[in-house]
Amino acid sequence: MSGERFGSLQRKSLITVIIIVSATTIGFRLFQMQILNQTSYDDKSADNSIKMVEQLPPRGVFYDRNMTLLVNNVPAYTLRITPADYNRELNTKLEKVLGVESGYVDALLKKFQDYSKYLPIKIMRGIGFDIVAWVEENSENLPGVDYVVEMRRGYPASVNGSHLFGYAREITEKQLKKEKEYYNLGDVIGYKGIEKTYEKELRGTKGSKFVLVNSYRKKIGDYKGGVDDIPPIKGNDIILTIEASTQRVAEEMFVGKRGALVAIEPATGEILALVSAPEYDLNRFSHITSENFLKKLYNDPGKPLFNRATMSVQSPGSTYKMLSAIAALDLGIIKTSWTIHCTGAYTYGREFKCHGVHGTVNVIQAIEKSCNVFFYQLVLKLGIENWADYSRRFGFDVKTGIDIGEEVSGLIPDASYYEKVYGPKWPRSITLSLSIGQGETGVTPLQLAQYTALIGNRGKSYQPHLVRGHIDNDTKRIIYYDYEETKAGVGRKALDIVREGMYLVVHGNKGTATHLRWSDYEMSGKTGTAQNPHGEDHAWFVSFAPYDNPQIAVAVIVENVGFGSTHAAPIAKKVIEAYLNSVKENLPIKEQPITQLENTPTGN
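Now predict its structure.
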């Protein structure tokens, strides 16, 4: 009996000790948590109810050379879904309201299923106010669905500029893996043109806003009244080199045509206008672009997404005749006293035709009349290696480095090229076609504009470019960018002789573009018609003006239309006139409709 009481007392003592130790430990922990570590746990508690909302900065805007606003930011509503809160049974209702095909919402949710379910997915940008009102009215029955006000691109100056401005669009999964340090799901990134090249200058710096949320992650107020918020910093505004009214005229002249135009300020290399036709509507890229719209663009036979100004490689035709003349004059192979007699054709293994019978002509007259026979014989005296060397001096066979990324180098064949194609005994008669811009010679409109600028400015210019600089957000001063100087390394005498020939093309008695004369400015130029095995010939025209002090150089190609003097030259004249008038008035040209140009066939 006493033994049982002893065991019972022992157990009782042990239990008492356990209770006391446990109570002491719990008490100490409560004291530690509530008194000693109160601040730490308060912060952790606050963290659990605070949500950081990333604040996107507005993109920098674009101005032209006269500070005309070309590309700005326009407020727009964006519909979003937060997967963690969303009920997929709402898909059908949401798709009906948005006017999209069945499966649209589900496809987007699956596309981003590997990301955090608490990150909102942007379903559609640029939704109308009617959809916003519907979301507001039905918010209690639309868990996970909301909208935000964002900025999309606007084009207030009526300048399309699709191939020079480019566009920004939602970042792809592939891009996001490479650019994850700055970008998040749903962010916009420059995708083409200037928007892409100058993305870092344009995108700005993100900010942060802290809000209080409840257990359902719904916002219930601002944290500390916004004291800790970090405002976003707007992207830098950039100043372009183009002139808005000149660009508009150039775009209007190419409506319904295929081709390209590049206009350059010879002394600086600044692009004054750049058009690739057909173009596409940049406004369609301001929202989330549908796959159907993109497929339609990709499959369009006119290839509107293809930048003909920098990517299209074509034979330059007779616009390339000046190259052989410059090289031969600069090397002392000929002088202006050297003449040939044109009977309408020249035989070298086979007959090479001219487009007329020009009689006895020297180099100046040969440029004025565009005499093929003169240049057939000239290139034989010059030699293919000299011809290729001077071609490269003027920027052919290499990319110009223009600041929109998309560009090809073209092709200037030389002896080694033909040896690879035909072997050591390649036919020398091939070089005759090169002298008149045919054969394998391939150039872009941009390269031909740079070549014309170098001739007009007597062998000197700068790397072609579209952006002068950006406006510093703090000082509001323009930070100008530096560009590499370009020198052809050709003597002035040779260039002046060729310039005189180009002057006579427009102002001479026998020129191929005399219908372009007008009293205000003296323009120099050269027509060209490039053979096209797939249809009508391509029309070329290159020009600079005024003759004494060139302020603009232009290269124009109109595809599948015939003579350059008929179809390309009048476009160049209108663009040159528009720019020189804008300079003269120092303000944008008054909006006037473009009148139908008279087609005057005058040879090639």
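The chain has two domains: 52-237, 244-293+311-585.
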